[in-house]
Amino acid sequence: MVSRPSALDALDGAPSSLPHGTEVTTRVERLHGERRLPQGLVGRIARERDGGFDVHVVGVGDVWFRREELLPRREGQLAFAVRRDAAWNALRQCAVLEATVGSRAWGLANDQSDTDVRGAFLLPFSWTAGLVEPPRDLVSADGSQTFWEVEKTIAQALRADPNTFELLFVPTVRATDEVGEWLLAARESFVSTQLFGSFGKYALRQLDSLTKSARLAEHRDTVLDWLRAKPTLSLDEVATRLARISPRTHATDAEALLATKTYLKQLYRSLSDQGLIAANDFAALKAFALAGGAVHRGDEDGESQARRLSPKNAYNLLRLIHLATGWLRTGVPEFAATGALKTRLLDIKAGRVPLDEVLREAESLAPELEAARDASKLPEAPDRLVAHRLLVRISEARASRWLSRAEGPWGTTAPAAPSPER
Known about the structure:
Layout: E1 23-26, E2 30-32, E3 35-37, E4 42-49, E5 52-57, E6 61-66, E7 70-72, H1 75-91, E8 95-101, H2 103-106, E9 116-121, E10 137-139, E11 145-149, H3 150-158, H4 162-169, E12 174-175, H5 178-186, H6 195-229, H7 235-245, H8 253-273, H9 282-290, H10 305-330, H11 339-349, H12 355-375, H13 384-403
Parallel strand pairs: 9-11
Antiparallel strand pairs: 1-4, 1-7, 2-3, 4-5, 5-6, 8-9, 8-12, 10-11
Helix pairs in contact: 5-13, 6-9, 6-10, 6-12, 7-8, 10-11, 10-12
């Protein structure tokens, strides 16, 4: 039996696709193994298959639903999903550069690894000449392919964005049009010692933040233990206890207390969204604790989002530090990990290395990273004149193809540009 939250029905009348990552609310109850999942759970689209969608629900795992059993949580998300699908279908043919990236390009893939594709696309002239703001990103429905508009690609490269540099320099990159060939010919002009900050220092900051997030996730279990041991504790009392052991620093005790109280409210809201507690309030959290409730350790689907993603993020961030150090030292990027480094990264990815140990290892690499920057022969800044001339050349080529009705997706077979709403 399908039971719908009637107040939201008007928001979702179209049977549109739901792109990877879209936040949804379930419209029906579902049995998942021996567990009854109530209507109204919140999750994110993990993949589309078999005429429906796998929805990842934190604390539960991936659960399959038909499209009509799902409701985008925000009205704008549905409109965004429709626009994103339309842009992908119209402009995917306009790609000029593409590459296989991620773990398959780093030599760190396994049988479960996805194949991620990144690239650049050139908008037809007609898409740039009207009132409608054209898309700057193309993303496939499953999230495995991402393409940036050419001007955005160059802008990101000028600030040494790691994902853009990976697209431009990974050995699997290939041009599918002469505009892509121009981008590859100019790529060395984008490289500078600025990658010290965008790769290395960025990775160190993110690892530190990741460690703190994991510690906060561990505090969830501590809070449940406190409530089981002393059910009379109030929200303020639990927040005060938590502030004493929190890894985050604050200017005043009042700020620390406010932060931990906010965390507790987020905790019981999250558990409520998962259907683990009866209501979105502290009393329900306390009842859950007294009933012996727990988010089980060791079960990946039962882990908090922060903890579940930590090993994967940690190994990638450590990889970035090694990549930046080598690139600064030699002037040549080495994306594929080999030897002892590869073994170490795979151990971290698999969760066999404590996060604190990864952070200490990353911090120990900081002096070597700084020494590589100081001795680097790379320029201090990218060559913006080369980038300027490249953008002018690309703009002229786009206009020429349109005006001459050249064969292809920028001329005779260009997709129709969207019109503004009346």
